[in-house]
Amino acid sequence: MTWRIVRSSRTGTSHMANGVPCQDSHLARVLRDRAGHDVLVAVVSDGAGSASHSHVGSRLVCEAVVARVEHLLASGGDVTDIDRSEAQRWLAAVVETLAVHAELHELVPRDLASTCLACVAGPAGTICLQVGDGAIVVDDPSAGFAPVFWPQRGEYANSTVFVCDPGALDTAEFTVLDRAVDRIAVLSDGLQMLALHYATRTAHPPFFAGLFATLELQPSGESNDLNCALDDLLDRKAITDRTDDDRTLILASRRSPSR
Amino acid sequence: MHEQQPFQQPTFADPSLVENPEPRCPVMMLLDTSGSMQGEPIRELNDGLQTFKDSLMADTLAVKRVEVALVTFGPVQAVQDFVTADLFVPPVLTAQADTPMGAAIMQGLDLLRARKDQYKSSGVAYYRPWVFLITDGGPTDSWQEAARHVHEEEARKAFMFFAVGVEGANFEILKHIAPPTREPLKLKGLAFRSLFQWLSTSLKAVSQSQVDDKVTLPDPVAGPGGWATTT
Q1: What pLDDT sits at residue A35?
Q2: Which of A115, A258, B40, B55 could form a disulfide with A46 if both were Cys (CB 3.0 to 4.6 A apart)?
Q3: Looking at domain A4-253, which of 3.40.50.360, 2.60.40.10, 3.60.40.10, 3.40.109.10 is its CATH number?
Q4: Neighboring chain A residues of B157 at a CB cutoff of 8 Å
Q5: Which residues of B touch A159 (CB under 8 A)?
């Protein structure tokens, strides 16, 4: 195992006050490609505040994306096989999953409305896919921490895009980074205003640097202790004073500790 | 939720957080200060503006997020360009002259467009703006062009336009100016304070909504504190 991972989703204070569950979901897995290399899959999905079952929708989105990557690798593919049309097929499969779930539970797909942020990092290439707000941030060797895409928002502060929206597949952000990215952060919109500079559309490097340094002192893989430490961090007053929304963060690194 | 373990728990140091500007919720008020507003109506309107300010001041988030601008007519005057509620000083308006409502609407929409451009260029997030027209008469200038702008921009969700007529207003023309989806409302008597109380309550709800929250506004007609009747 080459990756160190820490991850957490925490319920927003406004959700707690109103008895609404945490509508964010996430999944982080390390899979193997046919050559035996580690492939990191990190997915975050933020369920719409106005959708009655979006906490289920966001979980289904994460599971469906991971299942597509598992399927690709199991059938002999690797990360370099993923192009925009493959990613669009994933999103179509996600939409189908949501439609089937809605049908079975007498809901409409809109009740499951959720965003989708996914990053798949293989030995040579990394792909990023995004529908809606939130951010995937990578540490570029020359440019430092940078969001791969700017959060997809509507014109207004309380509007965004969801996977089941008409046109979401066409406007989905997709990119291939032709290198082995070694530090990846995926965060939901509840944290984006604390970690991104809106005026310059850049990441705030100090937010990420300290967190990665702590992660990289840990053994590889994932530990319950460290996940608890991230829970604790995301629940601190300094953060909850500034955002009352759900907060999700996945950090993954395959960089050796600097000391 | 992860299971807590009592010993040797690693911890993350507090990360440095970004101070982004608060998202803004702009409201443009187009207020009739024509001669017919003299006396009781203009006094009640001024009291209403003070109520509006006081009510926003009592809300720690709204005070930083709601931005107010005032254009009065006539004559058409930009009495206040957009400022956050904490910096808004309610003016004491006096009634005079005629009712150039069309020109006032055009100027108000221009100021609103300029404000949106400023938000965009400085990376400030914002909510859908509100435009609030209050009159006790009818336009004494050409209003058709202004009405066309209101309808077009409302249709592409550039703002939400509310038209309120005081007793004696020309509701026939107001119906042509107001967007088809939002009929003009008639103020009950001179219930300006109730109107502004409602406006601040509504703006508080909007300015604190999350991504994709559907904001339900209190009913201005039937709700408690209702200040309007339909026309």
Answers
A1: 93
A2: A115
A3: 3.60.40.10
A4: 155
A5: 211-212
